[in-house]
Write the structure tokens for this entry.
Amino acid sequence: MKQATQQQRDHRADALNKNRGTNGTNTTNAQVQGNRGKQLDHNQKTSQKNK
């Protein structure tokens, strides 16, 4: 198995980091949580490709 590059490790850490205690926003984490919320939304209509 290939070793993850530094960039891949940083991206993984950013996805998990909520940036608590700061005024800033972690855009990687925001995108991950947005996608997760969309997938968990029961009112989300499925596309015809998925049927």
